[in-house]
Amino acid sequence: TGYFTYDPGFTSTAACDSAITYIDGDEGVLLHRGYAIADLAENCDFLEVCHLLLNGELPNPQQKSDFERTITYHTMVHEQLAKFYSGFRRDAHPMAIMCGVVGALSAFYHDSTDIFDPVQRKIAAHRLIAKMPTMAAMAHKYTVGEPFMYPRNDLTYAENFLYMTFGTPCEEWTVDPVLSEAMDKIFILHADHEQNASTSTVRLAGSSHANPFACIASGIAALWGPAHGGANEAVLKMLEEISSVDRIPEFVRRAKDKNDSFRLMGFGHRVYKNYDPRAKIMRETCYQVLDRLGIQDEPHLAIAMELERIALSDEYFIEKKLYPNVDFYSGIILKAMGFPTSMFTVLFALARTVGWISQWKEMIEDPAQKIGRPRQLFTGNPARPFVPLDKR
Ligand code: CMC
């Protein structure tokens, strides 16, 4: 009953006004607050992009150092939170750990769950941006059985994350700047992407005035799926399964077969019907990292490049406008850097947190904000007489 627009998957429904991110999917354009993603990736560090998304403008030098000081002030997590990790099995997927521990932050910061106080909203955003690398690195350390590393505020955001992930208390830690810059670029490329599934989940959860930590935990849950952020993990698993260039045609054939549910992971996008501008930058970064690490003939890269070549010249992919997306090359870089496959989506969540919280803040501050409450086209039984148990 009711006269509602039927739009499964929200392919033609704008659920909000937003001034944060602009995408022209046909042209392959992505702008944050008006700035092209390529310019930001080339010229900014991740915290400048965080400032831009959250506050609307790139920081000037004073604002940049103030913002860095604010974020680093919040990098540690409460010691009690560290105990949460030990409740998980050692083989727990780190995304499962992240869903739990990020949601648990609301129990530690009752003050910043007051969503009607603009100061508290800002502190919650800063806490989340600051603590995600710490919590993500702890998820990794827990699963490999190494001690948690406290954050180091003398390092950059990306360096500190790499330090907490790969450093140990028993050795001095250094990082190649090419790798920390690549990490920073990966964070920038994932920072926001307008109303995708996880961001819409954060907005929907937040529309009931749930606290921001719980909302971000809901975004992490939505991101986990292989059709969304879980694709970076799925791409690498797929490349491993393909295992050699001569087996590619078999997988391409399966991807095109209507009766086979297999899809080429890392291809296609709801909005981009052109090359994903993030994928181009990711491919460049991939070459730089492999070159720096002296990795020649990376087997997955060879398969990925050939897969891309075939897909871009195949009628099926051309007709359906299926191009490589942001996740296609990121897994190869992350693997080369030493991340286990299960951490790939955690890195996406870490970087996307600023997008989620910026969108959440924008929504709460929008005077037109209402609780999200979609309707349905009812397809069940019409009203019918009740049948007592002994007559069924
Ligand atoms: N391989 C083979 N065929 C595909 C693929 C693919 N990767 N993606 C879409 N198609 C086909 C699909 O079968 C459908 O064909 P038909 O019209 O004959 O039914 C057509 O293309 C349209 O697909 P859709 O599922 O209706 O499109 P969508 O907009 O609902 O889905 C998508 C977008 C990203 C979920 C999908 O392309 C996909 O599953 N890709 C693989 C997973 C992936 O890489 N996801 C990461 C997305 S980018 C990062 C992020 O934002 O999270």
From TrEMBL:
What InterPro entries does this protein map onto? Citrate_synth-like_lrg_a-sub (IPR016142), Citrate_synth-like_sm_a-sub (IPR016143), Citrate_synthase (IPR002020), Citrate_synthase_AS (IPR019810), Citrate_synthase_bac-typ (IPR024176), Citrate_synthase_sf (IPR036969), Citrate_synthase_typ-I (IPR010953)
Q: In which pathway does it act?
A: Carbohydrate metabolism; tricarboxylic acid cycle; isocitrate from oxaloacetate: step 1/2
Q: Which NCBIfam families match?
A: cit_synth_I (TIGR01798), PRK05614.1 (NF004126)
Q: Which gene encodes it?
A: gltA
Q: Which GO terms describe its biological process?
A: tricarboxylic acid cycle
- Organism of provenance: Azospirillum humicireducens
The answer on whether this UniProt entry bears the keyword Acyltransferase reads yes
Which family does the record assign?
Belongs to the citrate synthase family.
Per the record, the domain of life is Bacteria
Protein name per Swiss-Prot or TrEMBL: Citrate synthase
Give GO terms: molecular function aspect only.
Answer: citrate synthase activity
GO cellular component, as recorded? cytoplasm
